[in-house]
Specification:
This protein is mainly α. It has a domain at about 60-90. Helices cover about 45% and strands about 0% of the residues. It contains five helices and no strands. It has helices at about 20-25, 30, 35-45, 60-70, 75-90. The N and C termini lie far apart (about 80 Å).
Length: about 90
């Protein structure tokens, strides 16, 4: 059998309402825990890469887009390879 927990004190409020004074005393997390905040900043998101890909946009006919997408997952990489080959052989 587990030991019964003692009830909290009568003046205990798990989620007290914030007052103007409470807001005035509040400080940002990065100021209260600078080391922890810095470690989170280093580990968030993808690591930076030396030569990131660039996003471009241009219009293609719908039948061409449908055919490329229908070729299955990884079609972006396959389109990139076709473009690289066309550049290398002087076809583009």
């Amino acid at each position: 059998m587990t030991k019964a927990k003692e009830p909290p004190p009568a003046d205990f409020d798990e989620n007290p309402e914030w007052t103007a004074e409470t807001f005035a005393e509040a400080r940002p997390f990065r100021e209260v825990f600078p080391d922890l905040y810095a470690s989170w900043e280093r580990t968030r998101g993808r690591p930076p890469i030396e030569h990131p890909k660039k996003h471009i946009s241009f219009r293609l006919p719908p039948d061409l887009v449908d055919s490329i997408r229908a070729s299955g997952a990884g079609y972006n990489g396959r389109v990139e390879q076709v473009l690289r080959e066309a550049l290398a052989t002087g076809k583009l």
